[in-house]
Amino acid sequence: MGKREQFLGVNSIKFNRYFQTDIDCYKYLSEIKWSEATYRCKRCCYEKYCKGKKPYSRRCIKCKHDESPTAGTMFDKCKFSLLLAFHIAFKISTKKKGMSSLELSEEFELRQKTCWEFKWKVQQAMRSSLRFPLKGIIHVDEFFIGGEEEGVIGREKGKKRLVIIAL
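Below the sequence we write its predicted structure tokens.
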């Protein structure tokens, strides 16, 4: 199972178990960034490297340029810990209605403007590439699966499961 598939449908308990330190986050990013493609220096295009100064970074043997696993990602030049950034990105992407920058600020004890700027970076990363646009008439509906429950009225979730379908 690849690293990307490993987190499909992951809940917060599994997420917190896997990402406990900044080093865990750097390791995950480096495995994704350099797993499929071979390393190529962004400055001189040389393909040989050694260990860089920071965790899981790579240093070009020819020009000595260090490249962090965060370079070129939404985590690049982040103003707070990478672990915190991973948790914020997880919250934004898994909550059904997202989270406001004010909610993020209160939960993660960061300035509201810092949260707003990082949330914008996450939203840009989540934006569609438009490489696979939906065509024709698209029908989307949501419903709950599960029978009647004692004490649960109408569409209240209770123990029912939410299903979203698009045709």
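The beta strands are 49-51, 58-60, 66-67, 140-145, 161-166.
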